[in-house]
Amino acid sequence: MEHAVLAKQVIKSYFLTDPQLKFLRHNENITYKVTDGTDQKSYLLRIHTPASEGFAGVQNTLQGIQSEMILLRELNNNKSLCVQKPIANSCGEYVTIYYTHECDTPYFATLLSWIEGATLTLKEENGSEIAFAIGETLATFHETSRRRMPIQNLIRPMYDAERIDVAISELQVGVELNLYSRGQYQTIQEVLELVKGQLRELDKQENSWGLIHADLQLGNIIMHESRPCLIDFSLSGYGYDLFDVGSASSMLPSDLRGAFLNGYSAKRAFTLNDLRYVEGLIFMDIFISYVFFIRDSNRNSWIKKNAAEICDTLCMDFLEGKSVYYCF
C-alpha cells in the first residue's frame, strides 16, 4: 500500500476532524504533519516502517514502540523538558495497529504533539547561549531518565560493546561496495576495538549508563520560545551518557563546544578528563551511522566521502593518543 493512502487510513483512528496531511520524510519512520481541520492544531504522525533494513531493529517492534511511548509520557512529567507528547487513539491506545490485505504483518503507527518552532541551524545570533542551553537540556534529560522508575526497564536498542561488534561485522560490506578500502576498514576496526576498551572503563563508573537519545543532530532540536526541545526519540535506547554528549558536540562547531560542555556540567557531573571517552563515542556514533545506510545504494554515497576524510587523519590521531575533540 502506498504510504500516503496508508497514512489517510491510519489517521482515522484518532479524534481529529478533517485532518490535512503533509508528507515530511521517510527514514526510520514514515512521517507526516497532520493538521486538524477544526482547531488547526498540528500533530506528527509516524508509521513505523524503516526506509531500509539498516534502520530496522527492536525500536520498530510493538514492544519497542510502546516503550518509546512510555518514555515520552514520563519525560512530559518533567516541566523542565520540552518533548513531544504521545496522543492516544480512539481506543485509548498510544500505538495504533493497522492491518491491510496486502501485508501479512500489521503496521504500527503513533501520533505525537507538534512542537512549534524553528529547527536549529547554528546560524542563530546567540549561538553560545543556545549551545549552553542544549547542554543543560541534555543533562536534565539524562537525570530524568535515571530518576523515573517506569523507564528503567524498557524494550529499546542497546548502544554497548555488543553493538560495536555487530557494526564491525556489518561494516565489512563497505569494502565490497567500494565505500572504503580494506586498509581503511582495518583502521575503523582498530578504532572501535579501542572504544570497546573505553566502554569497559566507563562500566566501572557510577551513573555512566542509562537511557540516551542516541540521535542528536540539528534536525532533532527545535527552538521553541527560545528554548531547545529534543525531538525524535525513535532511536533512543540504553547507552552511555557520553554517547549523547559526543553526538551533540559533533553537530556543533568547535567554538560552541565549550559553552555546550559548560551547560551540561552545570546540571550533571562532567570533567575535561571525560573528553577522551567522548572522542571514542563520537567515532562509535559515526560508524554505527554507517551501518544504517551502508546497504542502501541510494543513500550511502556520503560514507565514502566521510571515510576518506577521517580514516587516515582523525582515526590515526585517535589511535596515537592525540586529542581530536575539536577536529571533527
Automatic annotation (TrEMBL):
TM ranges: 275-294
Occurrences of domain Aminoglycoside phosphotransferase (ranges): 27-269
Recorded superkingdom: Bacteria
Pfam family, one: APH
Keywords: Membrane, Transmembrane, Transmembrane helix
Keyword field contains Transmembrane helix: yes
Keyword Membrane tagged: yes
Family: Belongs to the pseudomonas-type ThrB family.
Protein name: Phosphotransferase enzyme family protein
